[in-house]
Amino acid sequence: AVTDGVILQVGRLHPTAERELTATYDALRLPAPGDERERFLAEHGPHVSVAVTGPGMDAELIGALPKLAAVINLGVGYDAVDVDALRSRGIVLSNTPDVLTDCVADLAVGGLIDVMRGLSAGDRFVRRGSWADGARFPLQRRVSGTRVGILGLGRIGRAVAHRLEAFGCTVSYHNRRRVDDVAYAYAASPVELAGSVDALIVVTPGGAGTRALVSAGVLAALGPDGYLVNVARGSVVDQDALVTALASGALGGAALDVFAAEPQVPDELFALDNVVLLPHIGSATVETREAMAQLVLRNLERFLADGTLVTPVALQ
Ligand code: 8YV
Cα(195) to centroid of ligand 1, in Å? Predict the structure, then answer.
């Protein structure tokens, strides 16, 4: 084996991954923060060579593992892992791309249809007896044929765009770099994109590079008839500005699967019928989560065998 040493499980993982980590690799589980964790790290920290995580690892924890050589992340997004701390020590990182692309894209389109056509709001209307009482449900907005902007045209963004083409939508996008092999119109900035579409779908990575990319100005450009869908990370949107825009009617509506400080959702949003609130379930299907767990295990197996990863993250 390239590395010997302890395999550490950091936070809860998919049951398949947890079972296999214990059964095949005798992995140890990091205790929750507190005295027990301190004692655990003092005893086992020096021997840990690989960490497998879903919730992430901060610089302090990485610093407590002097022999750490690899971090295997369950999830395509790795913004909760302190990559600066990894980079400076040459620790390698893997994530779980591709296997979740379809499910996240499905949820993005589902969120768009929900917020524009009032699926969740209509369900609430029926359940509380308003329909039976003779009340009228407000007219909604058409989805087919609308103009949709994709913020972040990576794997998931392309899968969203592909689905929207079937709805006859006009897709445009903004991305760090213009993408050569697509025919969608490119907008030079998020504000320019938001100003030219009926709905904006956020599918960028999280982290420092995209913090509050969807600013108050972007929300204003989207406007009172505009809709926002976020299946990326809460940090990509200025959440205070979003709450203000939704509460004041300056933004038409939003479908949100991610939030700034999960699982906390701003109270102000609970009363708004034009907001769809989801508990971070983009990848959360039986099929996709199993595939993510298998990819985590394949990364671990490969790293222990030859020091390489199946789906490495380029940490430049
Ligand atoms: C979570 C996700 O990571 O892949 C991502 O980036 O946001 C999700 O799949 C999932 O909760 C696993 O921890």
Answer: 30
